[in-house]
Amino acid sequence: MKANIANITPGEGLGDLKFGMQRADVKALLGEPDEVESQSHDDDDEDITESWHYDEIEVSLSFDKVEDWKLCTIAVSNPEVKMHDKKVIGLSKDGLVEALKKMKITNLSYDDWSSAEMPDSMTITADDDEIVFWIEDGTVMDVQWGPLFIDEDTIKWPINGHLSKN
């Protein structure tokens, strides 16, 4: 079965990929990742994130140890992926803002990430939807999002635990 990963659903996932999935379930859906990275956010051995990169489909997935290795973040740069039936990768900054208004996503914040290496880099964050659009040289290059929160500490998982029946 070929996985459906064509549509971004804020707070839920990317097509068949749902936040809260276990690594084994993601592997069953997408196969082995092209690259796996582990990183610790501080000196605490519990605060580890494992990132999986799928080059051909232009998707990166992050699993957090503190969340029992559930799928916690998705990033996509595949220009064929849609959000509310609209392709967002490749849109201009203004085109994205207009598209988000039509999607009724209006609580936006803007951050400048410009540096010597990337002089025209910024993010537009839809705070209520936990979604970040990375923009370079005026064009959306990447979308990154995670599950929604019930409160400051409680994640609203679309699914819990394993999908497999074993």
Helical stretch count? 2
Mean pLDDT: 91
Helix content: 10-25%
Approximately how much beta-strand content do the residues carry? 35-45%
Ranges where pLDDT stays below 50 over 5 or more residues in a row are 162-166
User: Which word captures the global form?
Assistant: globular
What Rg is obtained from the alpha carbons, in whole angstroms? 16 Å
CATH topology: protein yfey like fold
Order of helices and strands: EEEHEEEEEEHEEEEEE
CATH class: Mainly Beta
Name the structural class.
mainly beta
CATH architecture grouping:
Sandwich
Distance between the termini: 19 Å
Number of domains: 1
Biggest sheet statistics? 8 strands, antiparallel
Count of strand segments: 15
How are the strands of the biggest sheet laid out side by side?
A: 4-5-6-7-13-12-11-10
Protein model, in words:
The chain has one domain: protein yfey like fold, CATH 2.60.460. Helices cover 11% and strands 39% of the residues. The protein has helices at residues 23-30, 93-102, and strands spanning 7-9, 13-14, 17-18, 35-40, 48-54, 59-64, 70-76, 82-83, 86-87, 108-112, 121-126, 131-136, 139-145, 148-149, 155-156. The strands form three sheets. An eight-stranded antiparallel beta sheet has the order 4-5-6-7-13-12-11-10. Strands 3-2-1-8-9 form a five-stranded mixed beta sheet, with no helix packed on it. Strands 14-15 form a two-stranded antiparallel sheet. The two termini are 19 Å apart. Residues 162-166 have low confidence and may be disordered.
